[in-house]
C-alpha cells in the first residue's frame, strides 16, 4: 500500500480568503487536512496599552479599530464599562438610540459575513448583493454621526448628538426592505445546491465542544446553546424589547450561516420596537469635562456581532485608565479552527474559516 508524506501548506498572511493578515499552517495528507494552526499577531497595534496613555474619552475612538465593521458595538461596550465604573446613569432616550445603532451595525456586520462567505465559495455575486445592502446602513451612520465605519458615536454618558428625523425615516425604509432582502438571499444562496453541499454537515462543532472552546455569539448558538448577553445582562434597555434567540441543531457551517440570517430578522424587530417606543428627553448625561472615575475596577460585556466583547478597566482615580484588557470574541472563537478542519478537504478550510467570521483587528488588538 502506498504511503504518503504529510506536508505543511501556509495559507496567508494575506487578506483574500483569510479575511485579514492571518497565517494558517495547514498540515496536509494529500488533500485531507490533518491539522490547521492559526498564527496571529501580524496586525497587533497595542490598543490596550495605548488606552492607558489617554483619557477615558480619548479611548472611545480606539475601540472603532478593534472589530472595525462593528464600531458601534465596540464604542458601546467600552462606554458601558466606564459608566459602570463611575456610576453614571444614561438617559433612556440615549439607551434606545444606542440599541438602534448597535442592531443596525449587527446587520451590517452580517452583510460582511454573507458577502465574504459566498465570495470564498466562488460566488462574487454574493459579495456584490450583500455589500449593496450594507451601504444602506453605512449611509444611515453617515447621517447620524458623520462617519461610515469609525463611528465614535456612543459617548461616555450617552451619544454624541440626538438622532434626526431623517435618520428615523430612512431607518424605517430599511427595516421595511429587510424581508425582501432576506428573500433574495434565500433564493440566491440557501436555495443553491452547491452552496448546500459545501455547508451542510461540514465542520461540525458539537454543543460540548463549543462550550469547551469558550465560543460565544452566533458560533455558540449555532451549536444549540441558547446564550445571548442581551437577554442575560439586559444592558442598555434590552429588557424592554421582545426578540428571540436563533439557535442551530447540528453546529455545522449551514447552521452558522442560518443563525446569522435569522439574527438579521431579530435585529430588525428590535430596531422597529425601539423606534416605535422612542422616549423623549436628553441624549447625554451630565459628565464632567475633567472626568475622573473613582478608584476601583469594572468589567462589562456586550453581545457583539461575533460574541462576548468585554472590557475590564482598572481606575487609579486619575483622568486615564490604569489598566485595560479587552476580551475579544474573534480571538477565542479561532481556537475551534483546527477542530473544524481536521478530516476535511483543503477547499473546506476556507469555508470553515469564513463561518467562524473572525475580524483580525479584534483578534490581534
Topology:
Blueprint: E1 7-11, E2 23-29, E3 32-39, H1 47-51, H2 56-63, H3 71-86, H4 92-120, H5 124-145, E4 154-155, E5 158-159, H6 165-190, H7 193-199, H8 207-212, H9 218-221, H10 229-232, H11 253-276, E6 296-304, E7 307-315, E8 321-327, H12 329-333, H13 337-341, H14 346-356, H15 360-364
Antiparallel strand pairs: 1-2, 2-3, 4-5, 6-7, 7-8
Quick rundown:
The protein is α+β, with helices and mostly antiparallel strands and 365 residues long.
How many H/I helices? Answer: 15
Q: Level of helix content?
A: 40-55%
CATH superfamily annotation: Cytochrome-c3 Hydrogenase, chain B
| Rg over C-alpha atoms, rounded to the nearest angstrom | 21 Å
- Measured by DSSP, the beta-strand proportion falls in 5-15%
Could you tell me the number of beta strands?
Answer: 8
Task: Report the mean per-residue pLDDT as an integer.
Answer: 94
Q: Biggest β-sheet: count, sense, barrel?
A: 3 strands, antiparallel
So what's the overall shape? Answer: globular
Under the CATH scheme, the architecture is Orthogonal Bundle
